[in-house]
## 1
Amino acid sequence: NLDSTSLMLRLRIFSTPDLRWSEGTSPKRTFWCLHPNSKRSRAAMGCATSQQPSQPEPAPEQAAAPLQASEKAAAPTPAQAQQQHVSKGKGKGKGKGRGAPVAAASSAGSGTEESDDSLDEDFVRARQAMKSSSLGIAADAGPSTAAPRKTSFAPPPRSSAPQTTSKPVNKVPSKFVRLELLETSEDEEDDDKDNQEGAEESGDDNDEENGEEDEPLRVTSHLLSRAPDGECNWDIWLDMMRRWPRLQVKLGTPEFFRRSADLRVRFDVARLREVRVELQAECLERKERKLAYEERLKNGAAEFIREAERRRAMMGGRLQGGFVLTSSRIVKEVNDQQEGDRRPGPEEQDEREANAEEKVKEDQQQSDERRVRMAKELEQRQAKAAALKKRAEDKKLAEAEASRLAEERRREEAKARNREALIEARLAAMRGKHCALFDRQISTGPELRGCAPELQLDDPISSSSAVYVIPWGEAGGSLASAPLVEQRELLSLFHTCGIVQALLLVSVHTLMGTEAGNALSAYAAAVVVILSTIMHTTGFSELLSERLPCCKIVSEVLVGPWQLASLSSLFKNPLALWAFEGGGSESSGVPAMPAGLTSVETQMVCVVLHVPPAGSGKVDKAALATVLASLYEEGIAVVGMRMIFPDDSTAQSVPSAALRMAIRSGQPVLMLALRGPHALIVWRSMLGPADPLLARRTDPNSLNARFGGQSRGETLALAPPSSAARSLADVVWAFGGRIDPAASAAAVPTAQPVHAVSVAAPSAFAVQLQERLSFATAGVVLSGMLLRLGHVVSLAAGGPDNNKLIAVAVREGGGAFLSSCSRLCSEPAIDLGNRLDLPPRSPSADSQTTGRSQLDASVHGEYTASASCDVPSHLGLVLSDSSQVVSPVLAEACRLGEAEVLLLGIRPLGGEGMPLLLREVLDGLYARFGPDGRAPGGRVMSAGLDVGGVVDLIAVRVIDFGLLASHTTPAYAVAALRQFRDFAQLMKRTPDEASDGWWMPRESGAPTVLLCFRGEAIISRFSNFLSKEWKLPASTGGDILFTPTVLAARQAFGTFFSGLGPSAFEQSVPCDNLRSPLRFSLPSVGGVEGGNDFRISEANLFPQKLSNQLTVAMLLPPKLDAVLFRTLTACEQNEFTLVAAVLSGRLGEPIAKTLFDQEVADGHLSSADWPAFHESVAQNAADHPEDNDFKCLWLVFARHQAIKRLAQLCGHGDPSLNQQCLRAALRTGRDHIHNGIRCSTSSATAEGLLVALGRDLSQGLESLTALEPWPPLRSLGVEDGDRMLQCTLIVGALAKDAGFGLVRVLRELQSAVGEQGLVLVGLCASDAAAAAGAAPSGGDSAWLLRQATALNAQLLRWSETRPASSAAVDLAASSGRLILAACEGPVSVERARRALAAVSASMPKGALEWYCSASIGEAAVDVACFFSELHGSKHYIVEG
């Protein structure tokens, strides 16, 4: 029992690393707070009262004192106890009674009474002091191993008060823990809410009990969140079992199984949800009981207190107003206090009663609200449980319904299988050919009427009808042969006249045994036609004498007439369910198909043409003839033709919408059966839009545009079905036979069936392209061939010189179609974007225009095919083993500018996918890398900005690896193909092994295409193009692969393209074009010097050694010094070797002319620029007598591919164009005349410049070797007015093992001399080792060695008089690397020495030895010894 003046403090627990007592003080109270080092621990707080008026209030930081010091401070001394007793006895006022000790302690020293307000203020201050003390302790504590508890307040700043002496706490280093954000389910949120409310209501004393009771609910919630589908890992299940062992009892024994390498557990998740609902209801009921118990306890405690107070009051009278064993003073104080409490005033009494009533009402209201909330939660949980139960019931009902439907479906399928088995049994007796032409549904429908209703086939002497036969094809031809011109025109004439009563195309084999068959024995097929003799307006006899457009008479083409009875069986007998297949004993002259080869599955299309009434003239007489001619030009054969006269039953049995719109009862139609490779899409593209008016605007060359009417109802023919299967169903309906489904299984027609479809036997053939292809038109030609040839087995270079493309294919009829297929190599008339869902031709449609315009003008005249060539051995599937070939310097040569070889592979696709994809691939690559291609930004690439950068298509190979696999693909070929990579592997999305087997066809008859390209850095350029620019879906979808390294390309090339001769493809640009890689090659590369026949040999494509090529550069004023520094820096970075450097004056006429002709050929200058160019560089004795102010510097460099690389560094001849294109180039200046540098851009120009330069320097070399006596009779003069200028000689020698060349030395020397204010007026540098190892471009470069020899000899003679130069001279003689320079300027000797010292300091120690003239006099003699003339100088050489 605590009285009203007692102080209650709320305990706050902090997690600290040690156990510490914190002391907080206020002016009138002292208290302590215990801080334990454990989670969820409890601690008691003790309160004591003391009075220490003489001690100041301690700071909050001082509260953390040791435990012993705190206890000592808490225990009062005897003097303090006596003083407290005295003060208690002296206390006066209302603070007496039960709270007297506390009141006395609080009022000591002041003598005043303490009111209730002051006690509340003291309580607030005490709480603040305790809070500050606790925060200080938490701030001083080191990092704990447990996670700190979040607080809603920030810790106060540290005070500067001195710290109490305490034992230091060891700091624990912080650890970073990765936090993951987890999404909680709705059930977990409900559990958290319930647990939080339960914790708040039950208090801290029941946390452990509530945790144990709520653990099953938490286990079910966690298990539902981790395994919502009733399946989890084994460790999760075991953890849940450990936390709640009765889980398995509630859910039953689970099922353990393995998935991959993991052990999984499957349990009843529906039962788990039911258990969870039950647990939630139990939890809610438990909470209600707890709340009721607490309410009863609270009310009972209050009643007990009131009863105790009442009884104590009653006992007080018997015990004389006090307790037993108490003093009279205490009894008196208690009695006084009770008397004061018992006699409250009226207002106070009313206020107390009102407060009590209000308190009761509030408690009752809170209890009601709590009961309502719990009732609502219970209703929600019950509703959720009901919903789960209903969902489970619905699921069971759905499963039962699904089971019932599955059972019904199985019964229906069994019935269908029985029905199909019956039909198959009936058809088995008639299935005698392997090329069946029947459909299980259509073959049981009504028969199509093949003759007019008025025709009497049984009348042997009918005068109103006549039977004729039109031969089909040429004599001696096969079933695949195209009809002749007169045959097509005659058939078109009969079609437009409307007098045909029956028409059927049959093989001559069907006519054997009749008079007509004997007369047509030389032909393979014929058209039997029955004509009406009374329906023609002009008379039948006039029709027979009519002249056709080919100038032949109708009667000359017709064979007949024949008796109707002899050929009536063709229209009375039933049609066969299979097509007649020529070959064997029935056909002759057809090449036999090699063993193991099968024909690719071709497509068939049924075409319906309306027959106009007699004399109507609504159809063009040339329409049918044009259609037939166009079909055979595209390689499509007409294998069936018949006239039908549909009735109502026929019109209702049409299988497709395309035929349903064309077939009308009572309107005869002519039906054609088309067959050939990709016949469906070819016919659709030939037909054009179904609206003739739209076709005339969008596709004027289409058949509907040429022969259609004015509306969709007047179209020539409707569009075919969208799929090959539906198109084949139309052919079966129109040309297939019928069976009686009610007949027995062995019922076979007694009469001989008629074959309405005739197909030639498949055979292999070879086609050779007579003309060379180009990069621009290769996509058009190759895609057209693949689309029309059929099953392409191989396509490779062949012929006597291996420079002709030969294709081997298998097709029905072999190569018989080639005589009429004039569009074999033409562009496919197919909308590519609509077939393969391809975007507009990448990268832009504009970039494709050039190649297609070339094709339109050249493909028909140049690209011709011949079928007369023999089929190559092994069908062109010969491979070579190149796995042992090693190119040690190949990668280094390609890094230095050698043109690389890139092989692209196109994954085999079935149907029309491969021809169309090949077209898109080649067009896209030509648009980006061809001569008319554009840069990534859309800018047109000019010759000066793309030196040697054009890419050439050098070889193509098509291989059917599906056929090759039957003979086991060689291991070396598989190893080469496995090195190809696709887009996903380039972007590191899939491993390298993901593309294994990419070359194997997914469908029968799909070949793989390999393309071989050559160009500088083509592998990296293509990789960048594939990963960033190419928008072709097939490229990003993994259908296009490439060789990622030059070594992979080397192995693949040796396997699939070994042994080739001159390329079967033209160069993208002529060899003399600046963009051609062959322009910069040695004359031996390419086979014929100066020609365009590049031999595709491995020696030319993959060099076995590096060859140092010589190139020449000339630096010109006015910015010679700046251009020289930039040129030497760029050459050093690109690993050039400086062979020679000579400073000279104006150019001679031959050299100037050579340079000018080269610049004109490259497009940098025009012929009209010759006067300005000549004025800027050439020597003219009249205008420039002894012109020493002009100087130019000749530089001779050596490097692999030196000519091309230096030309690339120089850029375009116009500096302004380089700036516009943001091209970093060496050329700078005012215009294209004064651009600062000229260089050789071809092997021929480099050779001419070397010869001319050697001729000009030969006189100086001869004079050096013939100087007698020594020293030479020369002197150095200077112009008047410039005597302050001095001239000195610099000699530098570079060690052979220095690690760098003369390029760096000359650059550092030029820079150091310029910094000292000197000017180079004479220069001669030579590298004898580089000159000896360089491969000249066929010219005379021996003067370079002569120059080095003469300079060394001259140095040896000169060093005898200059002993200080012996080190430099000896090093020059041993290494052959020498630089002689003459510098002019004020105090040139001293400044030259400082410049040489700076150059030597920038070089490794011992790499450079140098010498400079010791005085002005020696300098004059030294310069005259080595230079016959100075350029751009005020000094000059005086002879004699």
## 2
Amino acid sequence: MKVGTGGEESREPERKVKFVGKQTSQKYPTNAVKTSKYTLLTFLPKNLWEQFHKFGNCYFLLISIVMYVGEKTPLFVGTIKAFSTLGLLVMMMAVTAAMAFYDDIQRKRADDAINNTETTIVTSNGEQEETAWQDVKVGDVLIVHKDEEFPADVVPLFSSGENGNLYVSTANLDGETNLKLKAAPAVSQHVLQASQSPETQLRGLSGQVVAEPPSANIHAFQGSMEFTGPQGTEQASLDYKQLLMRGTMLKNTDMVIGVVIYTGRDTRMVMNSREAPMKRSNLEKITNQAMLLILLAQAVLALICAVARQMNLPLLDGHWYLYPEVITLPELLGWWLTFFVLYSNLMPISLYPTAEFCNAVQCYFIKNDKRMYYRDPDFNNGIGFPAATRTSNLCQEIGQVGFIFSDKTGTLTQNVMCLRCLSIGGQQFGVYHGVGSPGGFNGGEQLQKAREQAPALRKQIDGFLEVLSVAHTVMVSQEQDGSTLKYEAESPDEHALVSAAADLGQTFVRRKGDQITVNVDGRGQLYTLIATNVFNSTRKRMSVVVQRASDGAYLLLVKGADNVMLERAAMQPGEKQKLDKDLHAFSIQGLRTLVIGYRQLNDGEVKSFMADFQKANCALTDRDLQLQNVAEKVEQQLQILGATAIEDKLQDGVPETIRKIRIAGIRLWVLTGDKLETAIEIGYSTNVLSQDMDIEVLEEDNADANRLDAMSQKWADNRNDEDRAKRAIVLTGSALQNIFSDDTAKDLLLKVATSSAVLIACRVSPAQKAEMVQFVREGQKPTPVTLAIGDGANDVPMIQTAQVGVGIAGREGRQAVNNSDFAIGQFRYLERLLFVHGRWNYRRACKFTNFTFWRNMVYVLMIVYYTQMSGFSGTSLYEDWIRLSFNALCSLPILAVGSMDQDVPEKVALDNPQLYNVGRLNQDLNVRTTIYNILQAVVHSFVLYFVTIPAFPGMESQGSGDYYTFGTICYTCLLIDVNYRAGFLTNTHNRYTIGTILLSFAGYIFWLIFYPQNYWLAHLLGPNMYAVPEHMIKCIYFWFCIVAVPLLAITLDVSIWFFFHHWFPDMKDGFLTKRAVSHSNYSGSEAEDDEEVPFQCVSEVSDSEYNSIGSEDDAVDQSEFGQQTFKKLRTDVPRSQGYLKPFWSGIVCGTILLAIGALAYSKSEANQQIRITYALSPKQEVSWTERAWLQAPFGTKDDEVFSVSCAEQEKVNSSCSVKVTLPRGLRRPLVYYSVGPYYQNYFSYMKSEVTAELEGEEVSSSKREQRCVEPTRVSADGKEIVPCGAKATSYFNDSFEIVGHPLSKTGVAWKSDLARYNNPRDFPNRPNTTWLYEMFPGSIDPKLNVKDPEFVSWMRPSGVPRVWNRYGYSDTDFQPGDQIEVIIKSRYPIDSIPGGFKTLVITEDGVFGTRHHGFAYVMMVLGALCFFLAIVAWFVHKFTAGADIKGTYSR
């Protein structure tokens, strides 16, 4: 809370508050409480500040800035538009900001509701006024009625209760349900209660309260009051009984009048409303480290490409149509920045929102797990308590716990105390039959018989029961039936003792002011309470001084811990020996002990004590210490009456839960305040300790470095898990203090403690609990995930120090719950929290993390491969607005997997806790899995690349080989591969996992229709993308690719999976069934799933318990979604049948790929062609990728290739005649030309155009200058070239004619492009302008100019460094043996281009394109590969055993 102070004490001096007739002049904080974080003015800057604390957000903001600099300045070449990254970043951050804003609105509404709540104040003239809480000020006098909350911290002046007593509920403050007794000071109570209308009696009265500075301590308060009434000024001391804190509620009292002392941030409630410490998950830390490695990899990739570009520059120099980029940075640095930005998506920007979404869903499942819903009539007023999550980013952390630090009382036990045994006068009463034995104290008859038969013992017994029935702070009331007494105790110990005393004949029946009434054998015995010396953790005892009415005797009645009581006892050695023996016997049975004593005081001692007590009680400083010293003086020479032995009952299921925790390899440290013997016995009863363990006990006298060194040497030889499981350490708080004071001993303790499975620390303080957690976190490397679990306020430091804090909603209040990361109702629910939700969530989180990194690696590797194909110019394979959808569309399929996947059924996880090792040992996200993911990314990127590239000639011949269509086809294949991969990684398919995959595809289809297929939006965002989807789906090779990619990926993935799991199995592989699980059947429930498991699976929580949630109870979502019982299809197979996956996928996929290859081959072979190469460059030094594109397509026959030389005629506009005899006939052939190597996809070349100018619009000179370098903008004679740009001015102006066979231009260019290309309105009359037809006479039709089909086709750049462009179609067939004459006008210069060539192709063209066997060959090879992998999988299964699964738990 913003208004909280984190529990810090105020530096303000003592506070003086005047009231009624006087006014407080000093200014104090307003009473308005603000938990909201933002205002309208601060929301944006604060939220941005918070979000930019995330490494990824800072990175992408910086990258966006760098992109913008490269785009707008000549520092370096920016090939990626800044909006494509910045826009996505803004969208991602906007979603997070919207969630934060919504949450803050809810907080603001809650604040307004509280601040505007009305209360009643009393004015100085005695009138009553209604005012809002936020307007309450220090010094105001309030009237609070029954069942109303106190709006501020108030000191009562008057209570309508008897003798000024009143009751308050502090449940809102500390969660305790017991009512607390408070009282108004007598000086004001006596004056105001004399009037029938106390509020009007205030008129004319005045007073002042002197109070301590604001403090966070809700159990202490010091102050004094001066009250001026009719009889003058009187003074009274104030303590915590006179402080009514904000948030507490008045109960069982009609009205209270009080003065406000503290408001707003000074109130106890607000000062205790501290923000929980920021906890980062282990997975988040690993992810951030991985991001740094990715950043390094990105930098290295960029450097490699920058160096490769420099090496490739000599080959580019001859490409006259490419104009050198002008950059001001050093060449290598500038191009390094270009490629670094180009590969920026290697860093997954969508990982943060993906993680937030998955964490939110995982939290939802935890909160709604009805098997963790706790309801008990005696708990929380019968209201059920569901599991709660307060820190969503730790959902996967509970699947990685290595150490558990547990409180005992209220955590392992119920904190429901039951008296079991007594020791009085050296004699034991009652027999304890062990943990879980029914009933309570069974020695009643024995005690009564001893009382009747032994007069001497009778006095001790009566005195013993007298202490139990009188020495306490219990409140009593009657149930509605009027006959049953109801005790309200501040601790369960007191409740148990008072109840036991009542059962044994001394019944506490009434407390009225300072009068206590006890019914003794049917007769009322009255006691006057003189003073109470309260219990605290330092004193470890409490006592009362009373006067017994029957004889007037003054008695000091005391009960406390054995060590402090025996130190103050007056006992004979024999008596002490007997008591020690009984105490030891009780302790080794696991019972909690208290020693009971008394002392009779004389009048002088009482007077002296009361004088000191009153003086200490009126002190304004160190009051508690002074009261403690006064009590210390009188609590001496005690007569010991005996001891009690109380059982703190174990919670149900604790031993079994701890047994499973130990099997899972989690080290359990129990930190308790009990005696050593009690702690050991509880350890045995809870399965923390076992009889076969080697238990080392460290006490104050033997806890030193030498002892620890001896233990270390003893355990040095055997440090494996099996040996460690048989070791335990038990040590005391004093021993721990000694060890922590010696650095050597501290290091040795860590060494031996981490070599054992269990550590029990007894007699430890809350601070020492937190120190133990920090001790492990700082000392153990690598840092393990620590979990602390407790139920009380004393466990809060431990809970907040641990990486994961779990609060149990116990009987000691809700401070542990309120300060925890997770909250549960019982310790046994920790089993489901860890082994079901924790394990599932860890594997889910690792799955979506690994998937996200893999996905982005594949995406970027495709761009890396394409970098060389684009001449190292920085061209992205994907168009900007298409790739903008990548993170959104490719995140969808993993959302359901990361939220709902279940690698094993929950009962398998529960019954086989060693499966938890996968998270504890971090097996799903480590160096090995990282290498595995990198290899998988390389494999998948190769699959995508080597399926789409061989298909390019077919795409080109069908008009789909341009950069935009080819890139979109590659992107579509990538999207299919990503969605397939998400499905492959899923263990349990359900409607949500399938739905998100379908949603991803639907979103992509929608985007294709909405953007590139929509003329207006395409015209606005990317004109060259218009109609790309239409031509993409018309291409048969597109369909071949989107079928081949997932088929090949399936075969490779399942083969890798099989080999990996065969030789490197994980623990889960040992628990799969002996037959495939539900490959063909959906299972309707988890129980049906579990029928496939060959061993018994039993849930720790009975159906009767969790089914107690009524249908009317909306505390949890009982739907199949909320319970994760939706229908699902499991894809697991047993390890013995694992080979079937690669075998059958290889056979099936191989068959389909071979069929595709055979079909493509037959159709390719059917298309006849002739190829006339009529120009070659004298420079033949080319790169290996260029050389691949210089070859004729596979399948070209020797008799189809003709070579002539027209190069000498390029200097004049003359023709070259070629006569060719056709070896085979051609049906209505297509004529196209091929020129290469030619980088139409070179970035600066491809972007060198003004789209508006091509579409006939007038454009400004500045825009022309921005997009067109001067030689492409201004002709040699100074005229403006229209249209400008490298693409237009480098138009391929060779022309061809087949004598006797006219060529039709229909279908040469896209209709959509022809429709949008237009000449200007003033064409051709604009002065000082060189038109396109003037630049290329004889090639461009003067009437058409930019609408010439050949030019329009040229302006759609090729996707590879070679141009295949249609020239025309013949309407007549060519017969075999015909001699045709081809007239070539060779104008286009290629002599300077290394490896340059020009080829004219006359070919048949069908649905499958022209002749190119390459794609068919690749499909056949890949099909054969699938068959090969299938055979290898069968061979490996048949002839090799595979690796053993270590740690397999056999049944």
